[in-house]
């Protein structure tokens, strides 16, 4: 404006200037005079203490007001008298006030205010009340470094950083805790991780080939969080997966023999089972059929048992029992057919005790026998008949055996008499006999070996053969005939016979088993015509 | 004065070391546990103040400033009503200078704190902690009927505060027994605010917030003192600092 006034004065001197120019200058003067005013009200932006030891306040100035404006910061503090001005306007930049350590007190209230002043006036800002504790906010961590490391064939990301620049002292006055966030380059999802007071962090879940962004921030004594650090990028290299196929190959090759062994075991499981669990032998009884036992028929079982047992044949035993000495002179003394048949029929076991008894017996009175053998055999037959009640089991075998008894020679129970000794030839036929001397007990006959006059016997025999008869001396009972001999020998003979008869009768009496025929004790047979055939003493067999 | 302080601190340090060597549980461990507990306390109180400072509080503050009629629970008159600053536009919120614990002389910066002896530090911490037993009861009872949307969360945090405060007090008692007779002295800081925070809703909220701001400051003090102590006691373990 002054300049314009000067211009007018100089232009006035030069009379007759352009009229337009004067108008322009006047307009400009009028405009300028209205902008002069006191400064605009400044605004305190805030204060911040990065390390709990100093703090800084910033303000924003208002409109200038046309005049040079000066901003001043005044503060009051608890436990401090008066109002004080900012100690340092420069260190923190323009429009700031920096409170150093000497001027910073914690746990006390500050009243801060900024005043803008120019030639026309002073304008204060709104005050700010705070405690340094409340305005603590650290700077971001620095030197964030990322390293891709490998552990047990898996890559992981190791993140490291340093504490904020101005927090160096380690006296326990401050405690900083960190936080970081990670995201892949293409996505928008940040993942937050808390690190505590550690200045390192390991991230394991990373993908090879991807690019990661990492940011870190911190807090001081549970204050407000700092800004995020500058983004750091890292690319995870693609790890060639060479080792995996190798591992797979090794595992496959190691499982093949195992699988093969299993297959072998499965296919040969029978042998394996037999090897591991040998079969226990079951019970075996010869001849016992298990199925038969199970069916429950004891009779069949017993029958099977018996059949298989191979009992000794009954035939042999029977033969032993019933065999006796059969003496035959030849064909003349052969028994008549019916008798034979009778013999065959009437066969039975003869107990040993009855052997001698049977010899004394004679056949039925109806039959006249001149043959010793006949008598013997008949008596034997009779004995056999009598003993039929005592026969043993297996009657079948008896029948079978009876057919053979004639041919067989006895070897038990019977007195074996040698032929050669007592062969008496009567009428040309050899006769074998002996005399009983004494009888001991029931069945012991003591044979008398005496020189029986052969001639007499021969004679007798001859007599009996040709005209073999004699006179009956006496008759006792039904069937006892005492013959009268012409010589004394006959009498003796008869007496002998009588003796024999006596013995025989005695014998018969002792045998209660005798039936019917037991009465026949006579040694002689009655002939139909009243003559008695003298039968020589039967030879004891 | 400073020399006596350094001599006294050195003596105390040697005593601490001897005591630490003889006892079963080392002092460093006890201090570590105590500082962790105090850290949790401070975290809770900070969260509480932030929860209370919700947007709906802003119009509340404006009405208060217009009214100038708030009954404030204070022990000392405010010194902030200066003529230099016009009252209009000034938010009259009770400031922690009026806390019942403000009479306690504590270090106010780092240098001062590092110069205080260990037993004094511990004594200060214990005194402050003891001073908040009663107010926490008042806060707890008021939190149940607090006219605030986050009342439930606030109530839970105050509950947790009480528990941590109690356990920390017990731990500090044990510590003080190990650190000599000087650590046993305690300052009495009675709370005179009564059992009631206010009759109406606004005064209730204001007083509630005021008390919480006082608590935040004191919990920060306790936490800082204990952490300084811990760092000093564990010279062999730099991670404690």
TrEMBL record, chain B:
GO terms for molecular function: hormone activity. InterPro entries: 4_helix_cytokine-like_core (IPR009079), Somatotropin/Prolactin (IPR001400), Somatotropin_CS (IPR018116). The lineage of its organism: Eukaryota, Metazoa, Chordata, Craniata, Vertebrata. Coiled coil: none annotated. Residues 1-24 form the signal peptide. Keywords: Disulfide bond, Hormone, Secreted, Signal. One of its GO terms (cellular component) is extracellular space. It is found in: Secreted. Belongs to the somatotropin/prolactin family. Its main location: secreted. One of its GO terms (biological process) is positive regulation of receptor signaling pathway via JAK-STAT. This is Prolactin.
């Amino acid at each position: 404006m002054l300049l314009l006034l000067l211009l007018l004065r100089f232009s006035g001197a030069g009379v007759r200037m352009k009229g337009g120019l004067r108008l322009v200058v006047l307009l400009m003067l009028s405009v300028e005079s209205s902008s002069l005013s006191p400064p605009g009200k400044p605004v305190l932006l805030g204060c911040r203490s990065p390390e709990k030891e100093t703090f800084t306040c910033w303000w924003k100035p208002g409109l200038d007001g046309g005049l040079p404006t000066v901003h001043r910061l005044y503060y009051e503090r608890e436990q401090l008298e008066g109002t004080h001005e900012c100690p340092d306007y420069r260190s923190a930049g323009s429009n700031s006030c920096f409170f150093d350590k000497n001027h910073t007190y914690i746990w006390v209230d500050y009243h801060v205010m900024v005043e803008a002043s120019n030639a026309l006036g002073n304008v204060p800002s709104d005050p700010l009340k705070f405690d340094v504790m409340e305005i603590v906010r650290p700077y971001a961590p620095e030197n964030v470094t990322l390293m891709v490391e490998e552990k047990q064939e898996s890559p992981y990301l190791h993140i490291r950083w340093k504490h904020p620049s101005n927090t160096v002292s380690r006296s326990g006055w401050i405690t900083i805790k960190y936080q970081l966030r990670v995201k892949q380059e293409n996505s928008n999802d940040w993942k937050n991780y808390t690190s505590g007071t550690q200045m390192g962090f390991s991230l394991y879940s990373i993908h090879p080939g991807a690019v990661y962004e990492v940011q870190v921030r911190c807090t001081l004594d549970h204050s407000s969080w700092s800004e995020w650090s500058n983004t750091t990028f890292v690319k995870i290299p693609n790890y060639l997966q060479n080792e995996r196929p190798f591992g797979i190959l090794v595992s496959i090759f190691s499982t093949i023999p195992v699988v093969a062994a299993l297959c072998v075991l499965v296919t040969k499981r029978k042998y394996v089972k037999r090897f591991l669990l040998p079969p226990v032998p079951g019970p075996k009884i010869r001849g016992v059929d298990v199925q038969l036992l199970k069916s429950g028929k004891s009779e069949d079982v017993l029958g099977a048992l018996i059949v298989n047992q191979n009992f000794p044949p009954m035939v042999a035993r029977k033969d032993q029992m019933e065999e006796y000495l059969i003496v035959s002179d030849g064909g003349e003394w052969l028994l008549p057919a019916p008798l034979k048949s009778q013999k065959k029929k009437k066969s039975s076991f003869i107990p040993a005790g009855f052997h001698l008894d049977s010899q004394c017996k004679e056949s039925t009175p109806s039959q006249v026998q001149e043959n010793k053998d006949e008598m013997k055999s008949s008596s034997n037959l009779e004995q056999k008949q009598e003993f039929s009640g005592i026969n043993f089991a297996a009657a079948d075998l008896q029948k079978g055996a009876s057919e053979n008894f004639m041919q067989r020679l006895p070897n038990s129970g019977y007195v074996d008499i040698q032929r050669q000794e007592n062969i008496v030839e009567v009428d040309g036929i050899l006769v074998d006999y002996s005399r009983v001397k004494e009888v001991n007990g029931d069945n012991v006959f003591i044979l008398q070996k005496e020189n029986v006059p052969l001639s007499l016997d021969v004679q007798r025999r001859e007599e009996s053969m040709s005209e073999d008869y004699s006179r009956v001396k006496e008759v006792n009972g039904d069937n006892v005939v005492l013959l009268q001999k012409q010589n004394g020998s006959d009498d003796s003979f008869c007496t002998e016979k009588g003796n024999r008869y006596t013995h025989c009768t005695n014998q018969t009496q002792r045998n209660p088993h005798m039936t019917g025929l037991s009465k026949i004790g006579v040694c002689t047979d009655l002939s139909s015509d009243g003559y008695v055939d003298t039968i020589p003493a039967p030879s004891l067999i | 004065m400073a020399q006596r302080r350094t001599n006294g601190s050195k003596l105390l340090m040697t005593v601490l070391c001897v005591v630490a060597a003889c006892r079963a549980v080392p002092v460093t461990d006890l201090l570590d546990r105590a500082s962790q507990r105090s850290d949790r306390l401070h975290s809770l109180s900070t969260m509480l103040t932030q929860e209370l400072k919700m947007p709906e509080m802003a119009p509340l503050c404006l009405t208060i400033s217009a009214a100038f009629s708030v009954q404030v629970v204070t022990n000392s008159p405010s010194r902030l009503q200066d003529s230099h600053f016009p009252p209009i536009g000034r938010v009259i919120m009770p400031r922690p200078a009026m806390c019942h614990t403000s009479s306690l002389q504590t270090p106010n910066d780092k240098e001062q704190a590092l110069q205080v002896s260990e037993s004094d530090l511990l004594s200060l911490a214990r005194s402050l902690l003891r001073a908040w037993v009663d107010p926490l009861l008042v806060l707890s009872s008021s939190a149940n009927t607090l006219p605030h949307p986050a009342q439930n969360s606030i109530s839970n945090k105050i509950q947790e505060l009480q528990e941590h405060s109690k356990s920390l007090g017990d731990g500090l008692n044990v510590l003080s027994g190990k650190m000599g007779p000087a650590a046993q002295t305690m300052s009495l800081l009675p709370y005179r605010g009564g059992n009631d925070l206010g009759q109406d809703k606004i005064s209730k909220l204001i007083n509630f917030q005021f008390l919480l701001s006082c608590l935040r400051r004191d919990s920060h003090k306790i936490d800082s003192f204990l952490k300084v102590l811990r760092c000093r006691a564990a010279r062999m373990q730099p991670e404690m600092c």
